[in-house]
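Researcher: Please translate sequence to structure tokens.
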Amino acid sequence: MKPTTMVMALVLVCALTLAAFVPLAGARLSTPATPGSAGGALQGSVASGLPSIVTQLSPILVGPLSPIQGVYDSTNGHVYVTDSNSPYFSSLEGVTSINGTNWEKTFPDCAGQYNGPEYAAYDPANNDLYVSCIYPGNVAVVNPSTGAVVTTVTVGSSPGALAYDPASRDVYVSNYASNTVSVISSTTNAVVATITAGQAPSWITYSPANKDVYVIDSSYPYGITVINGVTNVLVTTIQAQAGSAAYDPANQDVYASVTMYVSGTQTPFAYAIGTSNQIVAKIQLSGSSFPAAGYDGSFAYDTSNSNLFVATDPGTTGPNVVSEISSSTNSVVATVNIPAYCKGGGCYDISYLAYNTANQDIYVSGPGQYVYIVSSSASLVQTIPLAIIQSSSTSNFPTAEVFDPANSEVYVLCSNYAYMIIPLS
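Model: Translation complete:
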């Protein structure tokens, strides 16, 4: 059993229950005091001999919505969170602005029911946010300073993940249902190219080393579509059943989470793809698969040692595993087990990995209603119970994270019937 991160429709009875449970957008809740806590700051369990403690601040409630992705704006130091998946509250769907640990405002961007925002990309050149709207197939260009939609760009069907190319100032959008990638010029806010991808393109990663764009094709026959970011033409397709990808600035490789079958057994690998778009290493990982909701959260890059951390799912039994990959040797140098969270006859996945540059730790959301802190040496140093969602009667789980370098806090996005953002300091 795996927690659903995208709920396309809610029955009315759930919507009414939700409305009764969740206060108005922007409200703050005090975390219930528990043994070992002080007011709204939960310490959780800490490995012996470690003086620093990550504390859990009061949650920021964003209303009856479902936070999906967080984007940091380096210009004003704000974090923007896309809120979606609530057709009965379509007037509230939009982007929530967070200033420090305070809710600031939620402004609409995708008009109409079932048109909720999915993902966003920030353009530091024009300071606009590009937000993908599922139906009928638009990208809303939002001025975060005013909350106004500058324009709406028509792209393909069911647009999802976006990637920004700082060299060309183009924004790449994967169109899941039309098997294409739209290229939007951020200088004109017009589509300048439409490229045929594989089946059901999902996640997109940009490599500044070769200026190529890597698009994960998430349905059979699978593959990684590589697009030249200068000419916007298809370069090649790498045959792999991949789920997500991340760029490593140390060795300039792109790493993809790939599922293979070894002797008939489903096995997770990390493929290292060089700048010539050849697979330079196939790194076998522990576990049986990757988190279903991983996308950009399957990997976390550690700037302190230039290594990558990747999460894998154990399958039906056993712990989840976070593996540390050396970018110099393309091998697993350490692993840490994350306790299994099993309930109702099934076990939950890890939801997301995020790196905190301030304390150089990896924040692991899930499985279950916990956040686990892993050090850069791949040891589990702290377990943080998300008490506010544990104490509720809802099935609420962390789904994503975003790091705010302005205040060195990690925001944990929680959804599924009680929508909130929990800052960790």
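Researcher: Any highlights?
Model: The longest helix spans residues 12-21.
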